[in-house]
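Hi! If you just cloned this repository, the fastest way to understand the data is to look at a raw example. We've pasted two of them here, unedited. The first protein comes first, obviously.
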Amino acid sequence: MLFLIIVVSFSLYTVATFPLDYGTRYWNNPKYWADNPKLAMPQWANSFLGNSLLEHKIISMSAPQKMYPSGAYYVKSYEASFDLNADQFPTFLTLKLESVSFFSSKAPAIVLLVTRPDNRTIELSRITVEPPLSTEEPPYVRYVDEPRRVLVSGDPRLSITLSDFLLNAYNLSLEPGQVADIGYEKVIFGELCESTFKPLKGRYLFTVLLYARDARDQIGKATIVIGGQVYGFMGTDILGRDLAQGLLFGFPVALLIGFATSVLSTLIGAVLGIVSGYVGGRLDDVIQRICDIMNNMPQLPLLIFLVFIFGNKLWIIVAVLVIFGWPSLAIVVRSMVLQAKSSSFIEAAISLGAPKWWIMVRHIFPQVAPFILAQMIFFTPAAILSEAALSFLGLGDPSIPTWGQILEQGFHSGAVFLGHWWWVLPPGLLIVFSAVTFVLIALGLEPVVNPRLRRWR
């Protein structure tokens, strides 16, 4: 019961906090994850690695700390600090600009500086905002719908700046191409020790300078993204997606698939099984022949065929699982109804003139209800495992993140062979956890279904 409470609690939390179109709006939108590191371990991995990996940092600035005139310009300074305490270099450095507004016909310029712990300052990037069009009216606003991202550590012009920096700081003469081979991050965040670069630990001050013609010009939001090796509670995948969010969204999806499939399969199987067993005759023959045909049809090839025709839709998977799930239950329920049909209280009800539907509802159904309930619970993990298996084969609904899809994407990207354990182990364990939850509940109901076990216990 504790396991079920955990699964239901996570599902309710996800439904209450996540939008219903999370899969299409966020999960499958690469732009939403552009600031995240790729293939980063969970943050708690540092507890076992001695804090040797750098934590991913996203630092935002929305208000200038300083403003001062400089010739024909008004200079606004946006500042943010970053402490480097790890033994690894950042993997990338990005500047993101949003809602840059200006009033003059001459667009402002933006400069990014970093002051290292050794008090040396490096100009990392210089950006010119697009000038206004003749049809525009002030204030002119840029980067509202789509922020401007500048991969600082990927700018070829930075190699010239860093080459001059190495010459002035360490009297080391290197060509810009050699600096690029070493890596911009090592030069920016490192110090030269015996011909190799080691992380320079301490506080770094990032400064975004806005050179404006009008005092009202401003940057709505400037963000510094410092790529790390660890991120979030469950890490990221090859696209930078937060796996914790994908795994969390998988809880209500798994419950929806499990409950919808089990309830529909149980309802159809129980009704047809009771009708087949009690009514008998030609109707019984028709229902049983249908059950035999369905039980002998190959489920996986048919599902693949339907997916190719209708597309990878969740409702198709649920429908096929329901279609192939009810016949086995109907056969077993029919055999139980045949035994209950010969009972004395059934014959008494018939002699009193009770209609068939009344007997089936008031006398037959209570006899088989415990077994039907147990089978419904057993069908739930089977449906969850079936959906995970189909998603692992690439037949799942791509618009909805599920545990099976996360597992399939991990295997498809070689996560197992490359050692990206945080990508494949959590979804696999959650699939097993959810299945075991309902199996344990079903086993707990066995004494109700089987009187012999009730007496022994």
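Ok, and the second one:
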Amino acid sequence: MGNLSKPTRSLNPLGVAGLFEPSPFLDHLVKFLGTVSGTDKVFMFVQYYSKIVTWFLLRVGKKIAAEQITNLATPISDFRILLRYYGLLPLIQWMIHIEHNPPPTRYLLTIERLQNFANILYYPLEHMWWLGQHKVIPLADTTMNRIGLWSCRFWAIYVILQFLHLYEEWKLLKRRRNEIARKAVTSSSSSSSSDSAEIEMEQKALRVNEEEIIRNAIVNVGYLPLTLHWSIENSSFPDIGVGIFGTLAAIYQFIAVWKSTG
């Protein structure tokens, strides 16, 4: 009898990718890295985590390796500032948006207006500092340092205001949770399936909102010491501290952008 087994297809070296199945994870990763925020968060993690690695390498006497890591982190920091060079455009867009679509309370609107004002001053000062640092525009060292300090002070104002913003959001969340709980009690007596489904959806949305608030609070905890450190002339805050708090903020911002691009 003849051989009835299926003929094996010879592998074309140029078609080696056919050995792999389409990957949802790879699709998500490409989408994530295709955004400015996604790219920034990857580089942010490398930038700050490298400070922790550098600290460790210096502790064990590997000075050359520490210098190599620093040589990688420095251009990454530069690149991240360049990514923010058109940051004023989405900021202006957001300023217009909140005036036409205000947040739920007047207090939140006031906080967001103040945050926007702080950022309107932060961005140009940071850009000016960067241009002076790289000798693109002539700036005396003392002038450039003052510009850098004030840039970070406005950033620090934004971060402090963000704690107030998150606290107000948390209060609104608790209020909404209580309303849904009362609604659930009423719904259980009526035994309406449509009401139960609606309540379940609202509870799910609340859980997502709660995760976002907690995540943003952790990011803010990471940013606060950094902004205060860079706002104080001759600050004694250690570089390892910058690495730890910066890495904390980077990880949770990475998670936020990853979820938003899913």
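That's it. A detail worth noticing about the second one: The chain is about 80% helix and 0% strand.
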